[in-house]
Amino acid sequence: MSFAKLALVASLLLPAAAAAPLPAQAPAPPAAAVAVEHVTTSEYVAMRDGTRIAVDVHLPAARPAGGRLPALLEVTRYWRSSEDATTGARRPSLGSLDRLFLRSGYAVVKVDARGSGASFGTRSAEYGPQEVRDGWDVVEWVTRQGWSSGSVGAYGTSYSGTTAELLAASGHPAVKAVVPAWSDWDVYTSPARPYGMATTFVDEWGRFVGALDRNDHAVTRAAVRRVDADTTGALRDAAVREHARNPDVSAWARESEYHDDRYRGGPSYAEIGPRAWRAAIERSNVPMLVFASWFDAGTAEAALDRLRSVRNPQKVVIVASGHGGGTHASPFVVADTPVVGNPTAAEMAQMRLHFFDHHLKGVRNGVDEWPAIRYHTLGAEAMRASPRWPLPGTTVRRLFPDSAGVLAAAAPSRGADRYRVDFGVGTGPNNRWATQMGRPVLGLHDRGAMDARMLTYTTAPLAEELHVAGAPTIDLLVSSTHADGAVLVYLEDVDPSGRSRYLTEGGLRLVHRALARDTAFGAEPYHTFRRADASPMRPGRPERVRIRLLPVSAVVRAGHRLRLAIAGADSAALARVPATGTPTLTVHRGGAAASVLELPVVSGW
Question: Long-range pairs for 507-510 at CB < 8 Å and ≥24 separation?
Fold first, then answer.
């Protein structure tokens, strides 16, 4: 991605553009109107180790003298606010969601995470343990302010969605509710190294946050906002100089191949992000409202794994959108426009508000009676609700790769299919792993050209409608000509005209094929991605490879067919494995060790 495009991404992600990148937001009111709606102050807050963190406090202008308010925090990596790089004029820093909170009687507190924006310090890793400790200190400071009621919530999208959840991990008793939206759970599996492979996304994101950390005006077209007392910018410049010691995010992700690798002495993936803090999050028992998308990296998988394995009270909303909910992503609705069966931006904003009202103000508004999960169903293009996940009535349907490219209902006789990996195969530039850079998810509505370059198996036309809801799994007996490589699998809907539409995908770098015994953090089959568990393939020897595809809810209509497509690369999203050489994969089918696709199917939905 060019630096010019990175600047465009900055305009999408920085708080100066919008507090949360949601669709159809109301236009910002004129500057004069904004000035009377709220009062903003900006200052440094010292952490327990003396590091100064930049904080903006926005209070409703109509707050009565001495009135105390609950506070909603957003801790961001993308600058809490900005100013004109030439004149120093402050830019609007609040989006429509922030203004809704202010109008509804909340203080809104924006925070530059340590080692970013105008905050001092350095970052040993993204979502590192220090951010959790800083979260406690910021909350403690908030509760001591004269305007504070002592109740705190946290919200955010993307990075700040993850820091919202980490605020629960801090264990501070003032934290009453958090709303993580399109956030990360296990940073290794999404978004840093899905399936055990590096992503092109991390390279782009690394360049982007590097420019932010340098306060690079040429890229950002803005400057990070100074605190009020920093009239000359000297403090901000001193903070930016400290950011020079931050690690290179792209190098960190590429060189840390395994879940337990450490980059230059910093923490491993196993020590960062919410998954690493699961026990502390559970101890907090802080209620969570979680937003995710079937098509946004692994955010839906994260939401469902969290719902399954973390005992905190949770309400989950899964839509069919790009990152942040701003554009539709269903391959049955080919558009980069908002909504079509998804809740609108205004509806999602109201859900957040009602959730905070209930947990921070004690309002009896029915939040406790909300269903555990609301989810978009592809093909039907509508939202459904359920008291639990997996959905009641879920059963498993087994399909088997057979000869002549057939996906059969019964195990076939023995056979094998060879596939020479085509490293040009991919999901296109607007894929699920790229949407976190602000792109819509597009190009998944007609996979015919890519199908022709993969190994495919297709069912006969379905006699009746099929609702797939959950995470399909594939159990492959596969051999390779190389010690390392990858298997990528795609589940597709093929309509009567022959057009194939992407439903979901899964994959695995083959050295990670060993199964884990402890599945506390994920449903089976589960892989640890630890260095000690890695095992090269023995060329020509069949090995069992079990892959959990990313979850989805989709209706496949009667007369349509299901297709399983197998590849060894995604040129648009994932690094090439192996770096050199072209493997030939052999899928062994039939017999007692048949390869099989298992689909979670719901009847009577």
Answer: 507/194, 507/195, 507/197, 507/547, 507/570, 507/574, 508/195, 508/196, 508/545, 508/547, 509/195, 509/196, 509/197, 509/484, 509/485, 509/577, 510/478, 510/480, 510/484, 510/485, 510/486, 510/537, 510/543, 510/545
